[in-house]
Amino acid sequence: xxxxxxTIFSKIIRREIPADIVYEDDLVLSFKDIQPQAPVHIxxxxxxxxxxxxxxxxxxxxxxxxxxxxxxxxxxQAGLKNGYRVVINNGDDAGQTVHHLHIHxxxxxxxxxxxx
Length: 116
Ligand code: AMP
Prior knowledge:
By secondary structure, the protein is α+β, with helices and mostly antiparallel strands. The chain is built from two helices and five strands; from the N terminus they run αβββαββ.
């Protein structure tokens, strides 16, 4: 079983706090990051409250695929024709601060490598 917990993202899913939503379907929600680290910074989350990538299970197989395909759709919708970065911070060493799985889409500027 995936460990579940209440986070600020659960409140966004339930519309209890506002967010700038750019895409939604039955399984996923996508909204602008409140503290953008690039000209375009959008998050894609599953509605299912999976705490982090490590907590995804085999039963989440199609959901995980849908999340990535949603990243592609949202990036295209945002006009990121020249590329973009996709980031998942998984756990403490990665700096994950919100314990609900989310994928960052960062674009609109040249990204550097390695990341910090
Ligand atoms: P992470 O460090 O990977 O856990 O990223 C969490 C992200 O959620 C950060 O980039 C935050 O700026 C973002 N964030 C936190 N609260 C909100 C919110 N209410 N609306 C939109 N983005 C948020």
